[in-house]
Specification:
single chain, six-stranded mixed sheet, Alpha-Beta Plaits, four-stranded antiparallel sheet, 393 residues, binds alpha-D-galactopyranose, alpha+beta, Ribosomal Protein S5, domain 2
Length: 393
C-alpha cells in the first residue's frame, strides 16, 4: 500500500498565501568536524554543510509588509511593516535572523519589497547545527531571488554575520555562514578564517558522520560565548599580537607568565586547536582513523577543560562513543558548535551507523532520562535558489 504524498513546500505556501511561490531556496545546516571556537581568532576550521536544511518559499505581495510563517518554529504568521525591520524580542526572537538580514541589504542600498514567505525544513533548531546561519542565508537568497540581484557567497556570509551581531546580539565568527554558503557535496571545508580561503577536503569514503543532539540548551550560552571571545582578545593583547592565530605553541610556552590562569587556558585551547586542524586534514587524506580519533578526542578535552564550553550531556555522548571504540566502528567523537548543550559529532565506519546510534541513545537515556536525537548525515552542497525542477522538499 503506498502512502499518500505529503503536500510539498509550494503546496503549503499556496494554502497559506493563495498562489504558488515565485521561488524556493534551501540553506543547509553545518556540523564542524574540528577547529572549534577559533574562527573569531582568525584560526582554521573544518566544517561540513549537511543534508539537513532550512527551506523557504516566497513571492512578492505588492504591499508594504512582510508576511512570514515559520513551520519549524510552529507559530502563526507574523505581519511586519517594512518601515520597522528593527530587532524583536521574546517569542518573535526568530524574526531577528530574517529582519536583520533584510536590514543589512537595505543598508547596502537595496530596496526590500513586501513579500510573503514560508520557512520550513528538517534542520533541528538550536542544536549547534547553525540553524541561525541557515535562516539568515535562506532569507538572503529569497531577497536576491525576488529582486533579481546577487552577492557573492563571501559577501553574503559577511552580511549575514553582521545581521547576527546587530539583530541577535551574538558576536559570532564567520564559520557558520561560510559553511552554509560554500558547502560542497562529499567534502568538508577547510576555511582559513584569516584570509577566508576555502579549500574543499574530501573525506574517506568509508567514514560516516553521526550527529547526536543532546536536545538540551543551557542558558547563558550567548553571554558565555561573548566572554570566550573577550578572553581570547585579552590573551592576544597580553601576548602583544593581533590575534591568537599569531601565537605558536613555543611563543605561548615562553610567555605564559603574561597570562593569568584562565587566559592561559583559553589561549592554550585556541593555539592547540588551530594546530589540530591541518593535522586532522592530513589524517583524513591518509585514511588514518587512529590519528583522526586522537585529534577529535584532544579537541573535546581542550574545549571541556581549557575553554569551559562543554556540559555533562556533551561529555556523556563523547565518552559513550570513545568507550564503544573500534568495536562499534568508532573513529572519533567530540562536541561540535558553540557548546553548553547542542550536539556531538562522531565519525564511524560506514555500515556501523545504526548500531552506534542505538548505543549512544541507550547510554545517554540511562543517565539523563531522555533520548538524544541521533542521525547520520552526509556532506551536502551550498545554499541555493532551487531550480524549478528541484525535487519538492
Ligand atoms: C558558533 C558561532 C561560530 C563559531 C562556533 C564555535 O557556532 O556562530 O562562529 O565560533 O560557535 O566554533
Amino acid at each position: 500500500m503506498s502512502s499518500p504524498a505529503l503536500p510539498s513546500l509550494s503546496d503549503r505556501f499556496a494554502v497559506r498565501f493563495g498562489a504558488a511561490p515565485a521561488l524556493r531556496v534551501r540553506a543547509p545546516g553545518r556540523v564542524n568536524l574540528i577547529g572549534e571556537h577559533v574562527d573569531y581568532v582568525g584560526g582554521l576550521v573544518l566544517p561540513v554543510a549537511i543534508d539537513r536544511a532550512i527551506c523557504a518559499a516566497a513571492s512578492t505581495n505588492g504591499r508594504n509588509v512582510l508576511r512570514l510563517v515559520s513551520e519549524a518554529a510552529g507559530i502563526a504568521p507574523v505581519e511586519v511593516p517594512l518601515v520597522d525591520l528593527g530587532p524583536r524580542t521574546g517569542s518573535d526572537g526568530w524574526l531577528n535572523y530574517v529582519l536583520g538580514v533584510l536590514a543589512q541589504y537595505r543598508e547596502l542600498g537595496w530596496t526590500v519589497p513586501g513579500f510573503d514567505a514560508l520557512f520550513s525544513g528538517d534542520l533541528p533548531l538550536g542544536a549547534g547545527l547553525s540553524s541561525s546561519a541557515a535562516l539568515e542565508t535562506a532569507t538572503a537568497l529569497l531577497l536576491e531571488g525576488l529582486t533579481g540581484r546577487g552577492l557573492d557567497p563571501i559577501e553574503r556570509a559577511r552580511l549575514c554575520q553582521q545581521a547576527e551581531h546587530r539583530h541577535a546580539g551574538v558576536p559570532c565568527g564567520l564559520m557558520d555562514q561560510l559553511a552554509v554558503g560554500a558547502g560542497r557535496a562529499g567534502h568538508a571545508l577547510l576555511i582559513d578564517c584569516r584570509d577566508l580561503r576555502v579549500t574543499p577536503v574530501p573525506l574517506p569514503p568509508d567514514w560516516s558522520i553521526i550527529v547526536a543532539d543532546t536536545r538540551v540548551k543551557h542558558t547563558l550560552a550567548d553571554g558565555e560565548y561573548r566572554r570566550r571571545r573577550e578572553d581570547c582578545e585579552a590573551a592576544a593583547r597580553a601576548l602583544g599580537v593581533p590575534t591568537l592565530r599569531d601565537v605558536s605553541l613555543e611563543l605561548l610556552a615562553a610567555n605564559a607568565f603574561r597570562l593569568d590562569e584562565r587566559l592561559a587556558r583559553r589561549a592554550r585551547h585556541a593555539v592547540t586547536e588551530i594546530a589540530r586542524v591541518p593535522a586532522f586534514v592530513a589524517a583524513a587524506a591518509a585514511g588514518d582513523a587512529t590519528a583522526a580519533g586522537t585529534l577529535l578526542r584532544a579537541s573535546h578535552l581542550s574545549l571541556r577543560d581549557d575553554f569551559d564550553v562543554s556540559c555533562p550531556e556533551l561529555d556523556a555522548l563523547a565518552e559513550a562513543a570513545w568507550r564503544a571504540g573500534s568495536e562499534l566502528g568508532v573513529i572519533g567523537a567530540r562536541m561540535t558548535g558553540g557548546g553548553f548543550g547542542g550536539a556531538t559529532v562522531t565519525l564511524v565506519r560506514r555500515g556501523r551507523e545504526a548500531e552506534l546510534a542505538r548505543h549512544l541513545e541507550v547510554d545517554f537515556a540511562g543517565r539523563f532520562g531522555h533520548i538524544p536525537s541521533v542521525f547520520v548525515t552526509r556532506p551536502a552542497g551550498a545554499a541555493e535558489i532551487m531550480p524549478p525542477d528541484y525535487p519538492a522538499p
